[in-house]
Amino acid sequence: MSKKTYTQLFLIFTLILISLFLFFKYFKKTNFDVNTQANLNQAVTANESLIEDLKYLSTDKKGNKYEIEAKRGNIDKNNPDIIYLENVKATILLQNSDLISISSNFAKYNTKNFDTLFNDSILVNYGEHILKSGFLDLSFENNLVSLYENVLYLSGISSLKADKAEIDMLNKKTKIFMEDSSKKVQINNIPKNGNN
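RE: above sequence
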C-alpha cells in the first residue's frame, strides 16, 4: 500500500474515534444517571419505602380539585407510581358541585393518573348523601366513583342496601343497583324521633 492510502486510513480512523468520543460525551446518557436511579431504588427498598403523613393535591384544566391525605404510605417495589395508603381521607371538589368527601382505612393510589381504589370501612359524604361500602373505585379517566360490596345509602328519611352504587362526576347523578337483576334494592324508612 502506498503512503497516501495509509494516510487516508489514518484520517478515517481518527475521524471515527473523534465521532465516537463526541457521541459518548454529549449525546449518550451517562452511567451516573442510571447508577443514581439504582441507588435511589435501593434506598427506597432498604427503608421499606414508607412515607409518613403524606398529601397529594391535583387540579385539572377545568378547575376540578382532588386531594388525598394518608397517615402513611408504602411505595410499590415493582411500580413506583403506585402507593399503598393507610388511614386515608380524600376530597373531590368539582366545578359547580358539592364537595365529595371519602375516608377509608386503606387505599391504592396511582400517582400518574390519580385513580384510587379505597377499601375497608368506606364512608362517602356527598351533599346530603352518605354512602358506606367495602370498596370504592375512583376513576378520573371515566369520571366515575364506583362503590361495591355491602353498599349502604343513607338520606334523611330512608336507607338503601345494594350491591353497587355509581356517582357520575360529570352529570352528578347517583345510580344504586343490584348486580343480579332478579334481586331488589332494599329500602327502609328511617323513623322520626324513634317512632315508626
